[in-house]
């Protein structure tokens, strides 16, 4: 885990850090007397437990590519700036990023689209970028935490053996008060910034009109996600339907050649005008390969830790904390600890789950505890990819972390609510 921090400090790639840890932890297992075959079996066993995630990852990549090719993502982004006024900009920026992140299920895709637009509009209105960055960071992780197409929500569901739709219902209940408090905080802060000047539109959005043909039909893929979620359609079929609708819109509404559509689904959408590449490009099956590799390596680490007892001392300390202070504070502390050292959200989730698996929580309570700790605390760690990726995509300063109100309120509220757990 130290190698992750070291490579990030040296600006090295996260995957490189994780791959570096592979031989190190394998060597530790071999030195403990485990044969090579046993070490490989540890890795395969842990990866096999999350095998269904890789199918979902493929669908998510195709889903984001199809939405970009069809113009659905761009249409969602364009709907919000028309409603933004200076006095309520921060509130609407938060809500807009919440809505888009819930539909896309990706913090980075939301940050690269609605997040960029929000920052540009905020600059035009004279709103300090630290406040705008905080609202964006809060909003993009609203959906990353509880979207039916979120990779983090799916990972938590696989680790805990819980149904994603039941978990979303629990997360919605636990987030209701923090959400309202965050809305109030951004509204009150926005009232103080209402004196700024500027037009509520970003220049970078005007080129979208030349790139796409817009109509309400482009909302169909988003409405299908919501409708299928309400009907609790299995997530794979839910996403497959949305992909099919977006593909049809790309072919017939946007006039995209079938060959280009296939390329967008696999390699990601690429905007013909290069000036719109920062907003429009992305997605595709290959965009999920890095996430899949991180999950593979994180699962391998979990298998090694479990088989060798490497974390037994650490687990004992957190179990002692749970006995003295309660299980909810212990899970929150484990999530914060994991987020500080893991450098990425996926590894933080896996590590927190392993540390807290013997706390005696039910599967549903453990899933909610993971969502309220590792998932939501990783974006508050400046050296974590979960934080750095959003700040870099939107051009926000690191200080924006202090204004991500919603991310602080979720764990604090649920610690108070779970007293005695």
Automatic annotation (TrEMBL):
Lineage top rank: taxon: Bacteria
Major place of residence: membrane
Domain Na+/H+ antiporter NhaC-like C-terminal: residue ranges: 139-386
Transmembrane parts of this sequence: 6-31, 52-69, 89-109, 121-142, 168-188, 209-227, 233-252, 291-311, 331-352, 397-416
InterPro entries: Na/H_Antiport_NhaC-like_C, NhaC_Na-H+_Antiporter
Topological relation to the membrane, as annotated: Multi-pass membrane protein
Record keywords, A-Z: Antiport, Cell membrane, Membrane, Transmembrane, Transmembrane helix, Transport
Location in or out of the cell: Cell membrane
Annotated family: Belongs to the NhaC Na(+)/H(+) (TC 2.A.35) antiporter family.
Identification of the protein by name: Sodium:proton antiporter
Organism expressing this protein natively: Mesosutterella porci
Lineage: Bacteria, Pseudomonadati, Pseudomonadota, Betaproteobacteria, Burkholderiales
């Amino acid at each position: 885990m130290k190698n992750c921090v070291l490579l990030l400090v040296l600006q090295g790639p996260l995957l490189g850090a994780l791959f570096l840890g592979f031989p190190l932890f394998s060597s530790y297992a071999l030195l403990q007397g485990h044969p090579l075959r046993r070490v490989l079996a540890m890795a395969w066993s842990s990866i096999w437990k999350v095998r269904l995630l890789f199918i979902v990852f493929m669908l998510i990549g195709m889903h984001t590519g199809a939405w970009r090719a069809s113009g659905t993502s761009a249409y969602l982004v364009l709907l919000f700036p028309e409603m933004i006024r200076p006095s309520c900009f921060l509130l609407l920026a938060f809500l807009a990023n919440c809505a888009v992140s819930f539909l896309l299920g990706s913090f980075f895709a939301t940050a690269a689209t609605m997040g960029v637009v929000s920052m540009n509009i905020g600059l035009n209105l004279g709103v300090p970028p630290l406040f705008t960055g905080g609202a964006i960071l809060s909003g993009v992780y609203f959906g990353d935490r509880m979207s039916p197409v979120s990779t983090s929500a799916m990972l938590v569901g696989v680790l805990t053996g819980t149904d994603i739709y039941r978990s979303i219902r629990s997360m919605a209940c636990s987030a209701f008060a923090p959400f309202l408090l965050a809305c109030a905080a951004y509204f009150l802060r926005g009232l103080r910034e209402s004196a700024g000047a500027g037009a509520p539109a970003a220049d970078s959005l005007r080129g979208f009109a030349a790139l796409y043909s817009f109509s309400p039909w482009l909302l169909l893929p988003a409405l299908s996600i919501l409708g299928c979620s309400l009907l609790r359609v299995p997530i794979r079929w839910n996403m497959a339907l949305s992909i099919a609708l977006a593909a049809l819109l790309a072919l017939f509404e946007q006039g995209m050649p079938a060959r280009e559509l296939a390329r967008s689904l696999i390699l990601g959408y690429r905007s013909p005008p290069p000036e719109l590449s920062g907003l429009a490009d992305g997605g595709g099956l290959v965009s999920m390969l890095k996430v899949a590799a991180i999950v593979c390596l994180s699962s391998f680490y979990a298998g090694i830790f479990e088989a060798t007892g490497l974390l037994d001392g650490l687990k004992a300390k957190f179990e002692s904390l749970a006995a003295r202070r309660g299980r909810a504070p212990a899970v929150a502390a484990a999530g914060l600890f994991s987020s500080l050292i893991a450098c990425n959200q996926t590894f933080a989730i896996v590590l927190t789950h392993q540390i807290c698996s013997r706390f005696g929580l039910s599967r549903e309570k453990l899933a909610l505890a993971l969502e309220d700790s590792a998932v939501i605390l990783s974006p508050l760690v400046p050296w974590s990819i979960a934080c750095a990726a959003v700040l870099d995509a939107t051009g926000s300063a690191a200080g924006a972390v202090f204004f991500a109100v919603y991310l602080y309120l979720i764990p604090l509220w649920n610690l108070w609510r779970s007293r005695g757990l």
